[in-house]
C-alpha cells in the first residue's frame, strides 16, 4: 500500500457527510511536527511533510482525493483549567506558566495547559484555583519546543524557533 502524502492544510472540514471521510488522530504535540508517518482510522498510511510554521488543528482537511477526504482529529488529553477570578489572577497564572515554558491555550475565560506536577505546584503556591479535565488542547503558539508526552521519559527537546498558526 502506498502512503498518502500530505503537505498542507486545504481547508477546515465543513461537517458534510462524505463516504470518502477518514480521520487522522493526533495528540496535541503531534500537530506541531513538520514531518511524521501516521496511520488513519481506516488503516491508510499517511506521510505528513508540512512547511515550517504550519500547525495542524482539529478539523483541518489535509487530503481531498477521489478515494479519501482526510480530516485531522486532535485527541483530547488531561489539562489544567484555570478560570481566573480577576485580571490579577490571570496575570499571575500566566507569569507562573510562562516561567515553566509550558504551552498554553488561552480563551476569553480560561487558561489551559497540559496537566503536570510543576504547573500544578506553581499555581497552588500562588493560591490559583484550577481543575483537571479531559479536553481538546490546541495551544496557540509553541516556539522552539517539541514536547514528548508519550510517557517514555524523554522530556522536551529544544528546536529552532518556529511561528505557529494562531487560533482563528
In the predicted model, the low-confidence regions spanning at least 5 consecutive residues are: 143-168
> Which band does the percent of strand residues land in?
25-35%
CATH topology of the largest domain: HSP40/DNAj peptide-binding domain
Query: Nearest-angstrom radius of gyration?
Result: 17 Å
- Just name the CATH architecture of the largest domain: Sandwich
Topology summary:
Layout: E1 4-6, E2 11-12, E3 21-26, E4 35-39, E5 45-49, E6 60-64, E7 69-74, E8 77-82, H1 87-99, E9 105-106, E10 111-114, H2 117-125, E11 131-135, E12 145-147, E13 156-158
Parallel strand pairs: 1-5, 3-7
Antiparallel strand pairs: 2-6, 4-5, 6-7, 8-10, 8-11, 9-10, 12-13
Protein name: Urease accessory protein UreE
InterPro entries: UreE_C_dom, UreE_N, UreE_N_sf
Domain UreE urease accessory N-terminal: 16-63
Short description:
By secondary structure, the chain is α+β, with helices and mostly antiparallel strands. 13% of the residues lie in helices and 33% in strands. The protein starts with a strand and ends in a 10-residue tail after the last strand.
